[in-house]
Structure formats: C-alpha cells, structure tokens
C-alpha cells in the first residue's frame, strides 16, 4: 500500500502538470479577440465559467468525499478534455460560452479532490516508517509544478506560433488535454474512514468547523478568497496590458513563462522565506507586493510596467503555499475536498458579479484607471485580512502551542 501511495503522489504531480500545461492560456485574450469578442464579452464568458464552478464546486467536492476522490478526478479530467476538443470548432461568442461551461464542470470536479487525495496520501506515508515528503511539502511541490507547467506552456505557445497560427495551438491543446484522463486511471483511492452520518449531519459538521470550530480556518479561507480574486483580476489584465504596451503577441508566451516561473519559485521557497522573516513579516510582504505591482503597472509603461507584474506573481506563489497548507492542516480528512471546494467557490462567486465589471472598465475607462481602482479597492481588504488572520493565529498559538520538535519558528501552518 505504501508503494501505491507513493505512486499516487507522483501521478497527481503529473496530472497537475498537464492540467496547467494549457498552451492557449498565454495568448487567450488575442485568440478570443480574433473571433470578434470584446473584453466585456471575454469577461462575461469567464463569469459564466465562474458561475458553472459555483454551481458544481461544493456538490462535486462533497461527492469526492463520499464516493471517492479518484472517481471525481477521472470524470473531471474527461470533461476537461472534451472542452479543449470543443475549442477546435469554436468560432463565436456562443461557442466560447459552451467551452467555458465544459471547463467549469471539469475543474469543479477536480478542484479540491486532487488536493485532498494528495494530502491524504502523504499523511498516510507520514504515519508509516517510510514516510517520504511531508504533506505540506507535497502541497508546495504540487503548486510549484503547476506554475512551472504554466511557464512551459508559455514557451510552447511561443514556439508553436513560430511554426504556424493559433489553430496549431488549439489542435495541440486538444490532444494534450486528454493526457490527465489517462493518468487518472493510475490513481489509488487513499484509505480513510468512510462518512457514516447523514448528509444533513455532515453539512452541520462542516459549517461548525468553518464558523465556530477553528477561527483560523475561517480567516484563512478569507485570505485565500481575497488573494485569489486579486490574482484572477491580474490574470485577465496582463495580456490586455501587454497589448496596450505594444508588445507583439509572439512574445506573450515568453513573458508568461517568466511570470509562471516566478509563481513556482514563490511557492517553492515560501516556507524558507517564512523561516527567515517570520510568519508576520511574510503575511505583510504577501499583501504589499501585489499592491506595488498594480501601482507600478499603472504609472510605468512599456517593459518597466511589465516588470512590476512579477511582484503580483511572487505574492501569488507565496500565498498559495502559505494559506492552503495552513487550511489543510486544520481540516479533518473526511471533509478536506468539500472545504477546499468551498474556498474555491468563494473566489468564483465574487468573480461572477465583478468579472464583467472589470471587462467594462477595461473597455471604457482604460487600463490605468482600472489598475488604480483595483489597488484602491484591495488595499483595505488585504489589510483587514492579514490583521484578522494574524490575530487568530496568535490566539491559537497561545491556546494550542503545537510546535513540532525542532521547529524554531511559529508559522500559520505549524501552529
């Protein structure tokens, strides 16, 4: 069984790689604009994508907890592949809406289930004599791999554009999009107690955990939602921003690769930075970096403005590792996929309402006003989140000082 679980982790890493190796992402905005869509329409398709996830996210996470994470991941990967295949024939606004619905259903089935299966598998290995990497390191490794895959997709997109047009990228993505489905059949369901309570009792237990059980869990969820929403906005601004700076589409892939590498490095070394600076300083740094990036992009132009985007990406990498590790350490294995899905739902739900407004602002107010507006809006939000989370972490550490032997620094994940 231990050997199977080690294979499990490696398969999830590979699946994470190919789920993030999406060749069309680095040039998606120009690709869709070539089919006649405005930024408002593009963000409307993303709002539908978020709405689809909002409808399926929590039910799919709960299904993964009840019926098995492996099944949810396999079905979601298959639907994802069908979505990329549909993109081969997409030509108008309605076709892209169908594409986003398919991807939304697929992602909602995978999201939460993959993290939960990886975390459960590594926890099983930690309890064995042949432990392998810890669950927190495995989570950090997965985030780094996914970010690196996104970077390689950027390089792949740039190279394929040299060989042909965007249709070549779409065809290549349709083929690679089914690789996670094939890998999914190699997964092994991690042994864990099966839920025996009624659905209503399980729902009550989850709400009790989030709202009253552990305050750090709720505030960590707030942090993931706030930082995740800001990163999502930046994601859809980048390509339009590069276009406005006169950067050729052929260079988008290279920039995207460097941006993704920055996320990967931030995720990989978040724990190291935390050990050197302390968790309080890391929280502050994670909140300051994206605000600096937004302001720098607003006031600087050309390649200098592009460079400021790296600070947003660095914060993204650090926050993913910091907050998701802190969250998963405090969630019982029975409900891990459900709670991860709930957190993702919070981000998507906020984007449903605000995404089209972002597109409208980019079309009518311009890139600078939009960037400044985001910086002004998020400054108090991030301040409130890091203060609230910091207070709850300090209180928890005073009540339950569960520092591991040999750990010299209190951290949100270790406390």
TrEMBL record:
Keyword field: Membrane, Transmembrane, Transmembrane helix
Name of the protein: MFS transporter
Location in or out of the cell: Membrane
SUPFAM superfamilies the UniProt entry points to: MFS general substrate transporter
Membrane topology, record value: Multi-pass membrane protein
Major facilitator superfamily (MFS) profile domain sequence ranges: 5-392
Transmembrane helix listed as a keyword: yes
Top-rank taxon, per record: Bacteria
Membrane spanning stretches: 12-34, 71-90, 96-119, 139-162, 168-188, 216-239, 251-270, 282-300, 339-359, 371-391
Organism: Congregibacter variabilis
PANTHER family: PERMEASE, MAJOR FACILITATOR SUPERFAMILY-RELATED, TRANSPORT PROTEIN-RELATED
